[in-house]
Amino acid sequence: MLPFNEALRLWRLERGLTQAALAQRARVPRPNLSAIERGRREVSLATLRSLALGLDVRPGVLADGIAPGAGAQHAWSRAAMERIAEAVVRGTTARQPAEQAVAELLRRVISHPNPASSRGRGSRRHDARASATAWVLLQSRCAPGELRSLLQRIDDRRRR
User: Fold this and answer.
1) What Rg do the C-alpha atoms of the chain give, in angstroms?
2) Is the pLDDT of residue 127 over 80?
3) Alpha-carbon distance 61 to 2, whole Å?
4) Cα separation of 41 and 39, whole Å?
């Protein structure tokens, strides 16, 4: 279960919508949507319903913090985790599409490991936001132990 603001952002990204597009669909001012996604504004029941309608999901999905694809976590085999780690370190393509998706997310997280440290404008802040989004998506696709194992395998390969 994710915080409401993170679930909202992930659903918006999953639907391929910009903040402006979702704000228009949900009839919510874009600055308000931005504040909601950053966790700086509470939502009313009416706003929750509007956002859910704009995203074409049940309001309970957002309220319960259910990420897109939740419940679709893979039980990664050792071999799959080795292939994912290898793809991340070498910058190659993984064998399976699901493995490749996780490898790409891991690359984003590793390329900017401390999103909280980025203050300011421009591409640095965008990179930090992309890294934070990738981390949340990884948590929705991998069990915590698998995620730790993948990060350890990547670290081990980089040290070789």
Assistant:
1) 17
2) no
3) 10
4) 6
Q: Which residue has the tokens 């009313």?
A: 44
The pTM of this model reads 0.66
Give yes or no for a contact between 1 and 65, defined as CB atoms under 8 angstroms apart: yes
The SS3 of residue 125 is helix
Q: What's the token pair of residue 113?
A: 């490991």
- Whose CA is closest to 29, among 45, 15, 43? 43
Residue-range domain boundaries for the chain: 4-63, 78-159
- Token couple for 121: 């404008």
Instruction: Name the DSSP class of 66.
Output: P
Work out the average pLDDT over 3-8.
93
Assigned token pair, 88: 């991340």
Task: Give domain 4-63's CATH superfamily.
Answer: lambda repressor-like DNA-binding domains (1.10.260.40)
